[in-house]
Amino acid sequence: MKKAIVLAAGKGTRMKSSSPKVVHKVCGKEMVNHVIDSSKKAGVDQIIAILGHGIDQVKSVLGEDVKTVYQEEQLGTAHAVMMADKYINDEDTVVVLCGDTPLIMPETMNKFFEYHDNGNYGVTVLTARVEDPTGYGRIVRDENGSLVKIVEQKDADENTLKIDEINSGIYCFNGAYLKSSLQYVGNDNAQGEYYLPDTIEIIKSQGMDTGAFLGATIDELMGVNSRNQLSVAEKTMKLRINEMHMTNGVTIIDTDSTYIDADVEIGNDTIILPGCMLTKGTKIGTNCKIGPYTCIENSVVGDGTSVKKSELIDAKVGMDTNVGPYAYLRPKSDIGDNCKIGDFVEVKNTQFGDGSKASHLSYIGDAEVGKNVNIGCGVVFVNYDGKNKFKSIVKDNAFVGSNANLVAPVTIEEDAFIATGSTITDDIPVGALAVARQRQVVKEGWVAKKREKDNKK
Ligand code: UD1
Ligand code: CA
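Above: inputs. Below: predicted complex with calcium ion.
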């Protein structure tokens, strides 16, 4: 079995956060879950996470299939891996990764696994050449280019410090050799820690070859230790996500101002205009036009629909519908096909049937609106009496005139017609007209008379 041990016990002091580092998100997904998902994509069968600081918080974001182990004290990377001993069998291939390197790609891992298998190594380490190796463990090779050992920055002499090939912190172990080497790792070094890289020399001494695969780029290995690095990771990941969508046939006009979470789906021939945030598992259909300046969170948008300068949260919109500009679809808004939700219209907890329209300036809350209903300008669904919320029902083909108030609970039957400016408190039968306002009174010459009276005073 291929198993991955993800090291995530550290606190991440430099984040200055009350949450452990690895639960901080990059493009909407916790760093530790980026690492886990990439491992799974690269064919890892089982994940074992080593947790310490903020264990409950980390556990709460992990999938149920992830095994967790508690490392009470962080005594070093070898000590951390040792905690997972009971999950490791001799015949396993064991990948070790860090929970704070969210940018590692499955493709790179795949090549790395292949290199490990082909070389039949006891352990293989993934490496990169970098301009500034400061802080990383250095890869020491012999005259044949074979891996000899890894020396930590703090233990390195002057010559070793000059080496520009670094340890990514990602390893592939033969299970038997991992188990047999870990027990010999000591902590007699500058940091007084049990170093996982020390297993390399031990495995060599046990007669196995060890490999170093120079197969990664630094931006992929980047560890996130601060908010600054978090924003760098976000930028890199954001571009990667945008490129993936463009490859799949989505047009993105401005990749700099387009923020798409890792778990968002978008159909081909959809156009994303500048200034959009698509987050939390949002699903956008094909041939849509989204934006500019639109936020869509945890929502579903059907094929051919346009959403302009609007905000959608936990909402659903059907096909060939127009939303916006400046519409606000709140949770449980379920808008049908061929609808219009126009400017300054707010919808909440409402089913809005196919072909219905609310073109301007309305509040539609806690309602069931049928098909081909017209909601005039400025209509308010009065759903709240200060204590409780009530439901309004407006059936197919009803016409709600401009500036009407529907005081819930109320039912408007099919084909009913509500005169403009009405405040509707009673149900309206099929096909009836309801007028609920005072008749107009006209008093001829009233203004002149008033002026005369005022002048006398
Ligand atoms: C480690 C490597 C270094 C490599 C670098 C790459 C060692 C000794 N050094 O250094 O060669 O270049 O990664 O980023 O391994 N952790 C635990 N429990 C522990 C110790 C660490 O879970 O007891 C976790 C940390 O939370 C972190 C990861 O392991 O996510 C790496 O540990 P850290 O101490 O930061 O190692 P580096 O000094 O970065
Ligand atoms: Ca360290």
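The mean pLDDT is 97.
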